[in-house]
Design a protein that fits this description.
single chain; 66 residues; mainly beta; 0% helix; rod-shaped
Length: 66
């Protein structure tokens, strides 16, 4: 989702303001353990790892037309 607005300050100058938000949905996964030397499997833990990321941005700028 993103919103932005511009407003004319003078004849040739504009102010820009924008905001944005993005969410990457949570992912879940299994952890599998094994011994390094022997390669023997030591266990599986279901849904024990995961990630979730949300990003918010704000941008402000000036624009001048020639």
């Amino acid at each position: 989702m993103r919103l932005a607005a511009e407003r004319q300050l003078e004849n040739e100058m504009w102010l820009h303001v924008g905001v944005g938000y993005q969410k990457f949905f949570r992912e879940r996964g299994d952890t599998r353990l094994s011994a390094i030397r022997t390669g023997q499997k030591e266990g599986i833990y279901k849904n024990s790892v995961g990630a979730d990321l949300s990003v918010a941005t704000i941008d402000i700028g000036l624009r001048r037309e020639f």
